[in-house]
Amino acid sequence: MEINLENKEFQNALELIENTNQTFFLTGKAGTGKSTFLKHIIKTVSKNFVVIAPTGIAAVNVNGVTIHSFFSFPLRPILPDDDDIKTFSKGSEKRSVIEAMDTLIIDEISMVRVDIIDAIDCSLRRNSGNPNLPFGGKQVVFVGDVFQLEPVTSSKTGEYEIIKEIYGNPYFFSAKVFKKINFCTVELLKVYRQTDLDFINLLDKVRIKEISQIDLDKINTRLISDKELINNEFTIMLSTTNDIANRVNQQKLIEISSKLFNYNAEISGVFDESKYPTDIELNLKVGAQVVFIKNDSEKKWFNGTIGKIEKLEDKKIIVKLEDGNTHDVEPVVWDNIKFQYNRILNKIESEVIGTFQQYPLKLAWAITIHKSQGLTFDKIIIDLGRGAFASGQAYVALSRARTIKGLFLKRRIFTTDIIVHNEVKKFAKSYNDETVIVESIKQGKELAENKDIVKEIFLKNPKLFVDLISRYYSLNDKLIEKYKDVWSWHSLAIFNNQPLSVESIEKFKDSWEWDTLSENKALPWSPELIEKFSDKWNWNRLSFNEALPWSIEFIERFSDKWDWEGLSSNEALTRSLKVILSYEDKWTWERLSYNEGLPWSYFIILLYSQKLDWKKLSENKAIPWDCKLIEEFKDNWDWSELSSNKALPWSIELIEKFKDNWNWNKLSSNSALPWNNKFFEKYLNEWDWSGLSNNVNILWTEQFIREYEEKWDWRLLSFNKSFPWNIEFIEQYIDKWNWLGFSSNENLPWSIGFFEKHEDKWLTDEKDWRNKRIFMFLSKNTSLPWSVKFINKFPEKWKPSEPIWKTLQPYVDDKMIELICNEKEKKCTR
Q: Which residues form the DNA helicase Pif1-like DEAD-box helicase domain (predicted)?
């Protein structure tokens, strides 16, 4: 079949592959040219492709390799982030191929189990050089038809139950990775295999199981008698199981009285049995019916052509086709390939590691429906036996026929034979969404453009580069080692996105900033780790760290090293009275008094009333606050701190009861009070207006603000996120606002227009230290109109932050990091 580039769907798919890095699903009903398109892009598009498929035979047919062999996956259900998903060593052939690969094509995707997709995502993240992006930043093209044969999951082995519990269904599109990407589907619509529009229409209805009894009756007109079955030459039977197909073929061969000839395949190198395209020992007799399993270069026959053995000799086979022509058939070679990376040409090449040479024939009185997927026959007999048992099985069988006249049924097709699961139908509703496809193409083109801009940003602001990569990127040990004089070891120690291993800690023990490392909550903390580096830890900071494996035994083991001020503040210590009693004389009671991790009770407060710091206790939100407790110790409390404590049982009655004790400045900013208009007016003369200006729970309206316009603290109002913020309101009081407050306020009506209109306010004189903080606050503001181009407006001013990293992250990988470090190594310092 020739590729038709005027076809709109072909154009969309080609655009996605040629000009973007977007992952997508290429689908289409049987005979729409998916395989032809695949061959076309591999031949014509200048990208590094790797092709994989779920089975050995499918892989050989597309000059690819199997999924499991390429990724070295275990032969069992694979959990997301499974420990058995291999990280290939840096510099290994497999790692080099994955890193150099631009596009991964997965053929026959309908038969790929859902957990395999998440495993591929995990493997590509671990091995591609970009662990932060779905599929490691690689383009993945899924090819197939989910209405055809489904993934096999066995209840006997427990696969079905595991997959159902984790994913709900076995279909590839249910993988968790797709929640993180804009995934589009291009469906090829024009059918090339069949030309009879009525037959195509019938097949469409079977495919999606929207078929009437009238339609079924039309199909069942193809029912034939046993007598007709016997006389139907050049016709292949499609059966539901291997046993049936093998039994039919062997029985038919036995019935032929002529001499049996054996033709042995020649195998060289590595060629697994699961990949054999035909029998290693081909047993034939004159008169035997065979099917060609490979296209002829001179187009004398095609994959799926049926013939009869006309003549056999020791090294010669002549086959007669239905049109009466006879052809000498020569052995052909199938290659078993391995992908390898050519560093000089920066190209992925396929190396032939084994060959299988045999006549391109198989006995063909019968074949399984499963093995017929992808083939086309002029005449078929479908034997569903006791009934179809898998989704898509009936559709695959019926759609192998080129015409309805070439379709024969051994028994009727019933509605129960047509199995299509609801999950498949629901997923198919997203096909050919032009809006999603156009957006995906646009995003893909922007990706390439933005990648160059990100490089420029990093080159202009090397400190931003160093801090962002040190904080958020999952650097591997080799990159850390290679550029160890570049990184911020402070950021690596406290922010690093990838949990540090004991090996990494040991490897770089002379480089770590150990004070900071002692605060890291993501380390694999254990008594053994602490013991191993006991002379390097900062024990004060270690004592504050809530991630340590705290217990009385653990405290005792290092009792002479702890900083008890830190332990007294640590909320992760075992919460029991026993812990308090055990170290009564060691605690720093000021710190202990505001520790909210203790099992606070009236009894503990009473027991230690002479030791507690009542100012700190007044701040503590974990105290079992009630009016009785407040009353009993009213002479001990620090009423200023108490006034700002949000955990008190606030009510008008409580405020009235201790009206003369409260600090009204602190009370005014306490958002936990029962704020409403009546409550506000009741104490109008008591309120502190600076405190009120900072309060997020007041019922803010523009009218309310205007009414007390002269009383507000406009600096604090600028920080307040509960305002009814809008452009007009901001413009009305433009001279009153504090722009440092604005820079951190995420509830402003942020847009490119708003930012640009007040650009002079953000770029005020930086000699004033307060103005220097504007871009620090802006950098952390998640509501800014973040984009690569927006960041590039002021590349040298931004500070490292999560919003900036999330914006730049999709474009950063190991290659870019090495490029920036190599070009600007002298400037990439802390």
A: 15-197
Which stretches of 90-151 are assigned E, i.e. beta strand?
A: 103-106, 139-143
- The pLDDT value recorded for residue 58 is 77
Name the residue type at position 416. Answer: T
Residue 767 reports pLDDT greater than 70: no
Q: Please state whether 33 falls in left (phi above 0), alpha (psi between -120 and 50) or beta.
A: left
Query: In 10 A of CB 307, how many CB atoms?
Result: 24
Contact 277, 303 (CB under 8 A): no
Q: How many CB atoms lie within 10 A of CB 815?
A: 12
Determine the average pLDDT of the residues in 370-390: 87
Residue 557 is which amino acid? R
Q: Cα separation of 144 and 421, whole Å?
A: 17
* pLDDT score of 53 more than 60: yes
- The angle at the Cα of 367, spanning 236 to 291, to the nearest 5 degrees, equals 60
In 3D space, the residue among 372, 380, 417, 377 whose CA is nearest the CA of residue 229 turns out to be 380
* Alpha carbons 115 and 96: distance in angstroms, whole number: 25
Tell which residue, 281, 357, 292, 297, has the closest CA to residue 319. Answer: 292
Region 178-204: mean pLDDT is 89
Task: Decide if pLDDT at 800 tops 60.
Answer: yes
Query: Tokens 């690093």, residue?
Result: 496
Q: Comparing C-alpha atoms, which of 790, 781, 721 is closest to residue 753?
A: 790
Residue length, the chain? 830
Task: Find where tokens 């080692």 sit.
Answer: 481
The confidence score (pLDDT) of residue 156 equals 74
pLDDT of residue 387 exceeding 80 = yes
Give the strand order in the sheet containing 332-342: 266-269, 347-358, 332-342
Q: Which helix (H) or strand (E) covers residue 318, if one does? A: strand 316-321
Backbone CA torsion sign across 769, 775, 779, 784: positive
Task: Tell if the pTM clears 0.70, that is, is over it.
Answer: no
pLDDT, tens digit, 9 for 90 and up, residues 484-501: 889 999 999 987 556 688
- Helix or strand holding residue 678 (H, E): helix 677-682
| Residue 321 DSSP SS3 | strand
DSSP helix/strand/coil, 227 = helix
On whether the CB atoms of residues 810 and 445 are closer than 8 A, the answer is: no
Q: Kindly list the structural domains of the chain, giving each domain's residue range(s) and its CATH number in brackets, ordered by start.
A: 8-192 (3.40.50.300), 197-416 (no CATH)
Which of 160, 310, 173 is closest to 234 using CA atoms?
Answer: 310
| 386 contacts 363 by C-beta, under 8 angstroms | no
Cα separation, 618 vs 630, whole angstroms = 10
Query: Is residue 765 pLDDT above 60, yes or no?
Result: no
Q: d(Cα 700, Cα 104) in Å, to the nearest integer? A: 55
Nearest to 366 by CA among 306, 407, 452, 435: 306
Q: Judging by beta carbons within 10 Å of its beta carbon (0-12, 13-18, 19+), is residue 451 exposed, middle or buried?
A: middle
Count how many Cα atoms sit within 13 Å of the Cα of residue 224 in the half-sphere of its side chain: 21
**Coil/strand/helix, residue 608:** coil
The yes-or-no verdict on residue 4 having pLDDT over 90 is no
Number of C-beta neighbours around residue 682 at 10 A: 13
User: Would you say residue 441 has pLDDT above 50?
Assistant: yes
Q: What is the DSSP string of 472-491?
A: HS---HHHHHHTTTTS-HHH
460, 461, 465, 471: CA torsion to nearest 10: -170
Q: What's the one-letter identity of residue 587? A: W
Chain mean pLDDT for the chain: 91
Residue 500 and residue 520: Cα distance in Å, rounded? Answer: 10
| Strands, E assignment, 559-664 | none
Report which of residues 227 and 649 the model is more confident about: 649
HEC readout, 506-521: HHCCCCCCHHHHCCCC
SS (H, E, C) 134-153: HHHHCEEEEECCCCCCCCCC
Work out the burial of residue 472: count CB atoms within 10 Å of its CB; fewer than 13 is exposed, 13-18 middle, 19 or more buried: buried
381-388: average pLDDT? 89
